[in-house]
Each structure stands twice: as structure tokens, then as C-alpha cells.
Amino acid sequence: MVVGHEYVGEVVGIGQEVRGFALGDRVSGEGHITCGHCRNCRAGRTHLCRNTTGVGVNREGAFAEYLVIPAFNAFKLPDDISDDMAAIFDPFGNAVHTALSFDVVGEDVLITGAGPIGIMAAAVCKHVGTRNVVISDVNEFRLDLAQDGCYSRCKRSNRIAKRCDG
């Protein structure tokens, strides 16, 4: 299995029925490939498709020489968005969606997990006006990365558990 689920690429081949893309287009895409035929897909609830496969998880991923995805999953990238920025659209979208699902303005926020999504969610929370952002993790390296973001506190999860009797 070839991994990789965050990617930017160039269209080098187009299916016979695909419209809206041309050879050479700079693209990225949604990594959850849905069937398009089940009840949820037909109702427009593709996020609930039981037949979902993941790029780089259940099918060959972005570190392969070529990546094949349905046109439905692909989107063109504007020239003013760098490859580096476009490559993080997937985790950044998750972070923004999660952080903005709650009214966090003026609140204290705990984010468990100082991985890419957690650190980006902390940045979004801080940007919209949370009072304090605390990030917990068991990985010191990730906590150091989070600390670089000047968040209020970064704590190892096991220390927090001890303070909370559990």
C-alpha cells in the first residue's frame, strides 16, 4: 500500500466523461472516495457513505507516481495559493470546521492532541478570540511545536490525568 492523503498535483489524464478539467490543471482533492450509488450518496450525504475508501488508506495514495481520483473529488487550485498551503487544505479544513462548531469567543479551550489538526484548531480558536487555549498531548515534540504557537499552556496528558485523579 502506498500512503499519502494530503496532496497537490497536475492533471495528466482525464476520463472520457470528465468535464471541467484540462491537462496541466493544478489540483488537489478530497481523500474520501465515496461510491456515489448508495442511499446516502444519492441523497447528497456522501460523508455518510458506508462504502467510503480513503486515499492512502484503503487505496493507493499520493506518494505513488500517479494518483487516480474521481473528478467529483478533485478541485482546481488558484495560482495565488502555493503548493505548500494547498497541501494542508484537508487537515486545515477539519481544524476550522471543528473549532468553529462551538462558540469559543472569550472561552477557555482544551485541545487534546498536538498533531497538525490540533495545532491548527488552536490557531483558529486563538484567532477568533478564545481567552485561553490549552493543548495536551503525550508527545513532547508535538507539545514543543504547539508551544511555538504561543498558546496559553501545553501539558503532557499524563500529568493532567494525575492532577485530575485519573
Automatic annotation (TrEMBL):
Keyword annotations: Metal-binding, Oxidoreductase, Zinc
Signal peptide: none
UniProt GO MF annotations: oxidoreductase activity; zinc ion binding
Keyword Plastid: no
SUPFAM superfamilies, alphabetized: GroES-like (SSF50129), NAD(P)-binding Rossmann-fold domains (SSF51735)
InterPro entries assigned: ADH-like_N, ADH_Zn_CS, GroES-like_sf, NAD(P)-bd_dom_sf, Zn_alcohol_dh
Chain ranges of the Alcohol dehydrogenase-like N-terminal domain: 1-79
Record's keyword annotation contains Oxidoreductase: yes
Protein name: L-threonine 3-dehydrogenase 1
